[in-house]
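[Automated response] Your request has been received and processed.

Submitted sequence:
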Amino acid sequence: MCLALPARVVSLPEGGMDAVVDLGGVRKTVSIALVPQAQLGDYVIVHVGHAIGMIDPEEAERTLALFGELAALDDNTTPAP
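Generated structure:
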């Protein structure tokens, strides 16, 4: 199974094919070679360090909210060691 996450582009260093994205508060440099049209504030789908597509901002926010709900459920149901 593969998992790709929506992330917001927060920085586009000049002259490169990389971008800095925000993944739930974590900033990471990813390749945007497959989505060179990505601009600041756009949401991209990130898989293994590469932006592999663009995503609508509303859909990205809904997806991130669902991931947040899943994480909260996991935190509440995981027994302490």
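Summary generated for your ticket: The mean pLDDT is 88. The first helix runs from residue 57 to 77.
If you did not submit this request, please reply to this message.
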